């Protein structure tokens, strides 16, 4: 060997040996202030960004650390972040760390609404974090119900797990009952659950909260304008559990009762650990079976989901593969009849706590108007509710590129199906109303009408309606009668929807001197289709409805069937919507977080977004054939089936806009910071604009982009035993497109009224506080005081007729904004010491206007939740949860007059004066629930 070779070998050996002998191990134990060992804490060593998770004994260990100066950072949800600068020499280091309580998570890292992770205290946003412990303490009634804990967030979860409404700061006008997440982005791990929305197709259909959720980060307004796809009103981001460095898991079994003893049961499980070579995995999910909070003659919800992630960590980042398989059946509750405008009381024998008024279970096959020549049918069974399926798979990459460059890449593909089979509307229709007979689609259903119970075949009532067209009353001619001398104005609601979707967000981050620069691209593609068909159902109007088979049996004439054997009539004659759409949505964003001085940061974000909607919608007409679809002149229930004409109305519109948000954050100390933010956001129309507003007419104009302006000023304060955030806000909403649906009694058809464009403004204050006088007791208070005003608001009144001669436009400008309470808050107390924990929470919802005319007010109500938990061993735990323990009969929603096709805005002060005793439809909050949970950790 040459001298050079020997010298090189020596230097290489010396360097290797020196490096080997200089590497040390950093280990330690993590406790909270009560001495409880903390598992699943994230321990991070900067700047090399090596991280480990503490095990179930609170122990962590980082091996093979070279000499140098590092920052040791320890984070855990609900506890303050621990940070210490350490020097590594030639000896192993051991620490005993104590993490202080942080009930508002102000010292925890957040990623939602920010372009790079940062401490919540340093974030110039109004953000709330809910950890896994708090998530598990909530009674499992769906995603929206959990969000009631977010200050300033209005939630209507009275319909159940789906068909919910969520919004904040008065950004609410287009958040209707059938599309209640209009302004907000519901996300999983930073990407939207769904790219598109339209009637009966909102993201809550495809999201379930279970044991796989690590935490929820919620942004109200503000930076959502520049950090989310078409969701300027807020972001609700559920972050999943990550794999651990040792094998561990949890199984949780729960069972209980809701309402009048309806059983509910569920099992959750999660398991994960290392696979070797820096690979680790995590898999979990749940399955449930629930008879529902109200009384229905079928299982209300059943099904579940499986989620997984597979992670490979390396020195410069990680790559994660993840997925979700959701297969779930659930339903939604409609309204309950009430009388007494000043103090509503349940009417017609119904009950605010237990009545559901849904069709009972049966199986029917309704002709499919799209493929009538093939003899195709659509199966309909109202016990199915909505069958939601989601197959989502993705990859998430974090790569340190060197020289302070970082790349984040998140890509997801999802295939969704939502098949609705349920009833829509449950209004009272008097037997003196010709609609009760002509809704069948029959040409002249006058004479001897017979109603039979479809389940037993027995005759329920027989009547003569010969005089109703002259204004005379019907007469019973048999021994029986129908409950309340009426039937239910309801229809079978068949809606088949599907979507193939791609989502992506790519972000580059670069630190240059005092500037943290972020920029990138986000986008989504959705190929969606829908088919809607509606048929009338003859149903008794009583708390436990029965299907009715109806015939016309005039003396000396053949018997005419006004319904089929299941009680369905007017086959496919009420609704027909066969539409397809492609949505492409792309955005370029850039953000600079500039540290002007040591405590002062300036934040500026820009987002240019472009959205294209292209598709077509079939025109329809009643099927013209003697005897209807089946050719039988004695079956009048299939005479009005809507079929496509062969013509389509196309649309192809592009919306593009620039949004921006700018903020200042001044950090007085590690305990106190002040921020202010101004945002200009935009909301492009959703697909319902095309699907709902154009019936057999050309789609000749694009929708309006709504403009959202927001200002906020916030203070964040974090001391040893007290934490607080307070945010003043002003929000303005402009160009709100409003269209109601109405029923034309002459043609027995439903239509949408012309669009009205309106504006609103809301001003208020949000607050979130936590006080821990002792290490084992915490008091919390969060909520909002606000005032919403409809600065410009008109409503189109069609007067129950498609004829425009008697139409008028009502002006309600300067009225209070409906469904926005002046006050709402949550007050709670939690006790946690050693093996025992307990909590009590009071949710208060203030009085709200029930419609834009301000003619009817929904009274304030209170709901109390409680919980008690006991750790039998370090692995086994029992929890008892109750919700609405005092069975509050609060009213969450208002649907207007109790008549088929009516809506809330049809009720004015003049209407109430003229109809003081008429009934109307309200939606009460869900009744009491009790749940026992048994958890086993391993």
UniProtKB/TrEMBL annotation:
It comes from the Bacteria. Residues 1-22 form the signal peptide. Residues 122-235 form the TonB-dependent receptor plug domain. Gene3D superfamilies: Carboxypeptidase-like, regulatory domain, TonB-dependent receptor, beta-barrel domain, TonB-dependent receptor, plug domain. Keywords: Cell outer membrane, Ion transport, Iron, Iron transport, Membrane, Receptor, Signal, TonB box, Transmembrane, Transmembrane beta strand, Transport. InterPro entries: Beta-barrel_TonB, Beta-barrel_TonB_sf, CarboxyPept-like_regulatory, Plug_dom, Plug_dom_sf, TonB-dep_rcpt-like. One of its GO terms (cellular component) is cell outer membrane. SUPFAM superfamilies: Carboxypeptidase regulatory domain-like (SSF49464), Porins (SSF56935). Its main location: membrane. Belongs to the TonB-dependent receptor family. PANTHER family: CATECHOLATE SIDEROPHORE RECEPTOR FIU (PTHR32552:SF89), FERRICHROME IRON RECEPTOR-RELATED (PTHR32552). This is TonB-dependent receptor. It comes from Costertonia aggregata.
């Amino acid at each position: 060997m040459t001298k050079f070779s020997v010298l090189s070998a020596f230097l290489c050996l010396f360097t290797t040996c020196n490096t080997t002998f200089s590497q040390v191990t950093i280990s330690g134990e993590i406790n909270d202030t009560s001495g409880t060992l903390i598992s699943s804490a994230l321990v991070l060593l900067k700047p090399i960004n090596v991280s480990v998770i503490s095990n179930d004994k609170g122990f962590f260990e980082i091996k093979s650390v070279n000499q140098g100066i590092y920052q040791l950072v320890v984070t855990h949800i609900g506890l303050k972040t621990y940070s210490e600068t350490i020097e590594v020499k030639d000896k192993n280091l051991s620490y005993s760390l104590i993490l202080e309580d942080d009930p508002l998570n102000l010292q925890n890292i957040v990623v939602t609404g920010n372009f790079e992770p940062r401490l919540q205290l340093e974030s110039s946003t109004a953000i709330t974090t809910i950890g896994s412990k708090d998530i598990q303490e909530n009674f499992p009634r769906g995603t929206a119900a959990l969000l009631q804990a977010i200050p300033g967030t209005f939630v209507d979860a009275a319909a159940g797990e789906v068909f919910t409404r969520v919004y904040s700061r008065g950004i609410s006008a287009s958040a209707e009952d059938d599309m209640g997440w209009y302004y907000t982005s519901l996300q999983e791990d930073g990407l939207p659950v769904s790219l598109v929305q339209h009637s009966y197709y909102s993201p809550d259909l495809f999201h379930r909260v279970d044991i796989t959720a690590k935490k929820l980060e919620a942004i109200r307004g503000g930076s959502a304008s520049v950090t989310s796809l078409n969701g300027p009103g807020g972001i609700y981001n559920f972050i999943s559990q990550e794999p651990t460095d040792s094998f561990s898991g949890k199984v949780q079994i729960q069972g209980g009762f809701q309402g009048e003893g309806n059983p509910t049961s569920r099992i959750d499980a999660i398991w994960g650990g290392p696979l070797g070579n820096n690979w680790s995995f995590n898999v979990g999910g749940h399955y449930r079976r629930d008879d529902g909070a109200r009384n229905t003659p079928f299982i209300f919800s059943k099904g579940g989901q499986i989620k997984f992630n597979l992670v490979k960590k390396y020195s410069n980042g990680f790559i994660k593969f993840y997925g979700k398989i959701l297969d779930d059946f659930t339903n939604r509750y409609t309204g309950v009849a009430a009388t007494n405008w000043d103090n509503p009381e349940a009417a017609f024998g119904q009950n605010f706590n237990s009545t559901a008024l849904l069709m009972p279970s049966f199986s029917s096959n309704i002709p499919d108007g799209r493929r009538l020549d093939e003899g195709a049918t659509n199966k309909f069974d109202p016990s199915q509710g909505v069958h939601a399926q989601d197959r989502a798979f993705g990859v998430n990459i974090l790569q340190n590129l060197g020289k302070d460059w970082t790349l984040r890449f998140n890509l997801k593909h999802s295939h969704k199906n939502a098949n609705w089979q349920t009833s829509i509307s449950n209004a009272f229709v008097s037997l003196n109303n010709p609609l009760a007979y002509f809704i069948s689609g029959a040409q002249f259903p006058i004479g001897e009408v017979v109603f039979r119970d479809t389940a037993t075949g027995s005759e329920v009532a027989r009547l003569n309606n010969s005089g109703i067209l002259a204004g005379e009353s019907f007469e019973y001619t048999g021994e029986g009668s129908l409950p309340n001398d009426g039937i239910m104005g309801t229809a079978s609601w068949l809606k088949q929807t599907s979507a193939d979707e791609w989502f992506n967000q790519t972000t580059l981050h670069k630190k240059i001197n005092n500037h943290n620069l972020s920029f990138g691209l986000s986008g989504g593609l959705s190929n969606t289709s829908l088919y809607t068909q509606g048929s009338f159902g003859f149903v008794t109007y009583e708390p436990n409805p029965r299907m009715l088979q109806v015939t016309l049996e005039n003396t000396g004439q053949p018997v005419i069937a006004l319904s089929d054997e299941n009680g369905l009539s007017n086959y496919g004659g009420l609704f027909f919507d066969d539409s397809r759409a492609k949505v492409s949505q792309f955005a370029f964003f850039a953000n600079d977080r500039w540290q002007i001085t040591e405590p002062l940061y300036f934040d500026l974000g820009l987002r240019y977004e472009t959205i294209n909607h292209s598709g077509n919608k079939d025109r329809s007409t009643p099927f013209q054939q003697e005897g209807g679809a089946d050719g039988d002149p004695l079956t009048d229930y299939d005479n009005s089936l809507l079929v496509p004409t062969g013509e389509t109305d196309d649309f192809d519109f592009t919306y593009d806009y620039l949004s921006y948000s700018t903020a200042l954050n001044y950090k007085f100390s590690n305990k106190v910071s002040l921020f202010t933010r101004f945002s200009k956001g935009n909301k492009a129309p959703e697909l319902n604009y095309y699907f709902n507003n154009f019936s057999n007419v050309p789609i000749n104009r694009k929708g309006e982009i709504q403009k959202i302006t927001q200002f906020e000023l916030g203070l964040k304060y974090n001391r040893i035993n007290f934490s607080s955030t307070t945010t003043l806000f002003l929000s303005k909403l402009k160009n709100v497109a409003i269209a109601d649906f109405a029923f034309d009694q002459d043609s027995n058809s439903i239509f949408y009224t012309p669009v009205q464009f309106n504006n609103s403004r809301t001003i208020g204050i949000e607050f979130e506080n936590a006080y821990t006088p002792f290490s084992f007791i915490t008091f919390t208070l969060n909520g909002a005081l606000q005032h919403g005003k409809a600065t410009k608001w008109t409503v189109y009144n069609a007067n129950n007729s498609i004829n425009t001669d008697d139409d008028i436009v009502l002006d309600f400008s300067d009225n209070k904004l409906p469904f926005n309470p002046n006050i709402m808050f949550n007050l709670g107390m939690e006790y946690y010491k050693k093996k025992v924990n307990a909590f009590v929470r009071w949710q208060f919802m203030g009085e709200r206007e029930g419609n834009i005319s301000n003619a009817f007010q929904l009274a304030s109500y209170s709901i109390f939740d409680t919980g008690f938990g006991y750790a039998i061993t370090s692995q086994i735990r029992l929890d008892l949860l109750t919700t609405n323990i005092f069975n509050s009969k609060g009213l969450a929603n208002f649907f207007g007059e109790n008549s088929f096709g009516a809506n809330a805005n049809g009720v004015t002060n003049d209407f109430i004066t003229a109809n003081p005793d008429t009934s109307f439809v309200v939606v009460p909050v869900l009744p009491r629930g009790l749940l026992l949970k048994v958890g086993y950790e391993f």
